[in-house]
TrEMBL record, chain A:
NCBIfam families: XdhC_XDHase. One of its GO terms (molecular function) is metal ion binding. SUPFAM superfamilies: 2Fe-2S ferredoxin-like (SSF54292), CO dehydrogenase ISP C-domain like (SSF47741). Residues 3-79 form the 2Fe-2S ferredoxin-type domain. This is (2Fe-2S)-binding domain protein. InterPro entries: 2Fe-2S-bd, 2Fe-2S-bd_dom_sf, 2Fe-2S_ferredoxin-like_sf, 2Fe-2S_ferredoxin-type, 2Fe2S_fd_BS, Beta-grasp_dom_sf, Diverse_Oxidoreductases, XdhC_XDHase. Pfam families: Fer2, Fer2_2. Transmembrane segments: none annotated. It comes from Loigolactobacillus bifermentans DSM 20003. Keywords: 2Fe-2S, Iron, Iron-sulfur, Metal-binding, Oxidoreductase.
Automatic annotation (TrEMBL), chain B:
Coiled coil: none annotated. SUPFAM superfamilies: CO dehydrogenase flavoprotein C-terminal domain-like, FAD-binding/transporter-associated domain-like. The lineage of its organism: Bacteria, Bacillati, Bacillota, Bacilli, Lactobacillales. Residues 1-178 form the FAD-binding PCMH-type domain. One of its GO terms (cellular component) is xanthine dehydrogenase complex. GO terms for molecular function: FAD binding; xanthine dehydrogenase activity. It holds the Pfam family FAD_binding_5. Gene3D superfamilies: 3.30.465.10, CO dehydrogenase flavoprotein, C-terminal domain, Uridine Diphospho-n-acetylenolpyruvylglucosamine Reductase, domain 2. This is Xanthine dehydrogenase subunit XdhB. Keywords: FAD, Flavoprotein, Oxidoreductase. It comes from the Bacteria.
């Protein structure tokens, strides 16, 4: 039950053979070693496995790998600059103390990136709604909302220090 | 890995029907937010079956305002797409509000309105609003096209009249069923996001300048084995002038059409919500806060 899929991963054209039974998170972690994509609940309730697909956050645990064919996918590995410099949102998470155990952080950062791409100056309520699909088991939500506010204040999603990253503004 | 025996990507309805002809147990998957969850839970008829993907089929896409004023929503439209669509926001504010309360952003990007109603959860967020709008489903099957009012769809929890090979293609609402109405939806759940409604209520109302009720539609989620309308209360409300007593009587009459039982919440608590949510929704809708 193999099928070949081709898609854009963090700005790079890639292809691979997948088993049709595989979820996207399995392919991202096992075939492409994108281990920043975390599996939490496996049923779309926690947001740890969030990736950005064609400008929309989605849960890679509930996304069939075959659906990735032709798509443009961003994982946390595609956010920092190639030389390792953190992007604006990541830096704001560090500066605001928004990282505790870190398991939810990749998903939180990606939801924040897409939120700020769609809405560069969100209110705290809009930030809460934008991140409401991501759970933090350490319950560090205040600092996470602070971090997104800080990132917005510091210029939001900057594309200059990012390697061809496909953050789309959703239609 | 998902516990499936194969995957077929359908590019047309004919593709779907061809698969169903050879494998009647194959299950249609749209956004995956219900089917793949049930697959992971090894639910009967959701695991060890082949899946048919329908995401590429053109007839199921997009939202249109037809020349006769009918609003036609493609079954594959995501909750997010519906929430932000200008046609829906202008004419069907109740539905835009209801789908904005589904899950979290990721679920709203992935989940589809067609999947939400076909999954037939008693507390599905889109169902009460679609019942209130008298939505009519366009269903295609190997034998042709038929139109089914959504009130005739649900037969029990997760149960519908749909047969293998039936594909809900579009959800249509006639102009007379949205023009001049205002509405409001309350989702009663333990937390604001990432939750399924413990109970929900949609109210859609048309009043004249004297605040007389010209038409009222009330629908509940998770207050009976299926989403239900409240025809007794709706009939009572006809021609009444809105007052605290009338709203109270409307709420009480709703109990004739709901069928609650004690579970996570007691029957007394559930029935209390049945009696108070319609009045609150009506007042909020008329204040224009939707």
């Amino acid at each position: 039950m193999k099928q070949t899929i081709a898609f854009t991963l963090n700005g790079e054209a890639v292809s691979c053979d997948v088993d049709v039974r595989q979820s996207l998170i399995e392919v991202l972690r096992d075939e492409f070693e994108m281990t920043g994509v975390k599996e939490g609940c496996s049923v779309g309730e926690c947001g740890a496995c969030t990736v950005i697909i064609d400008g929309q956050t989605m849960e890679s645990c509930l996304y069939m790998a075959v659906w990735a064919n032709g798509k443009n996918i961003t994982t946390i590995e595609g956010v920092a600059a190639e030389d390792g410099h953190l992007d604006n949102v990541q830096q704001a998470f560090v500066d605001a103390g928004a990282v505790q155990c870190g398991y939810c952080t990749p998903g939180m950062v990606l939801s924040s990136e897409q939120l700020l791409a769609d809405n560069p100056n969100p209110t705290r309520d809009e930030i809460r709604r934008g991140l409401s699909g991501n759970m933090c088991r350490c319950t560090g939500y205040q600092k996470i909302v602070d971090a997104v506010e800080l990132a917005a204040k510091n210029g939001g999603v900057k594309t200059d220090n990012r390697n061809k990253i496909p953050f789309h503004v959703a239609n | 890995m998902y516990d499936i025996t194969g995957y077929h990507e359908a590019h047309s309805l004919a593709d779907v029907f061809a698969v169903i002809r050879t494998d009647p147990h194959a299950r249609i998957v749209a956004g995956g937010t219900d089917v793949l969850v049930k697959n992971r839970a090894e639910a009967a008829t959701y695991a060890e079956v082949a899946l048919i993907g329908i995401r590429e089929i053109p007839e199921l896409q997009g939202i249109r305002l037809e020349v006769d004023g009918t609003i036609s929503i493609g079954a594959l439209c995501s909750f997010d797409e519906i929430e932000h669509d200008p046609i829906i926001r202008q004419h069907m504010g109740l539905l835009a509000q209801a789908v904005s309360l589904v899950g979290g952003p990721q679920t709203r990007h992935m989940g589809t309105i067609g999947g939400n109603i076909c999954n037939a959860g008693p507390g599905a967020d889109s169902s009460p609003s679609l019942l209130a709008y008298n939505a009519v489903l366009e269903i295609q099957s190997p034998t042709g096209t038929r139109h089914l009012p959504i009130r005739d769809l649900f037969t029990g929890p997760s149960q519908t009249v749909l047969k293998p090979g039936d594909v809900v293609v579009r959800i249509n609402v006639a102009q007379a069923d949205y023009q001049g109405y205002v509405g409001y939806y309350t989702k009663f759940a333990r937390r604001n996001a990432l939750d399924i409604a413990n109970q929900s209520c949609a109210a859609l109302i048309k009043v004249n300048d004297q605040q007389e009720i010209q038409d009222l539609r009330i629908a509940f989620g998770a207050s009976a084995p299926t989403p239900v309308r409240a025809p007794h209360a709706e009939a009572y409300a006809q021609g009444k002038t809105i007052s605290a007593d009338v709203l109270k009587a409307i709420g009480t009459a709703c109990l004739k059409d709901t069928k609650t039982h004690s579970g996570r919440n007691s029957k007394a608590f559930r029935d209390h919500l049945v009696t108070v949510l319609p009045g609150r929704n009506i007042m909020t809708a008329l204040k224009g806060d939707e």
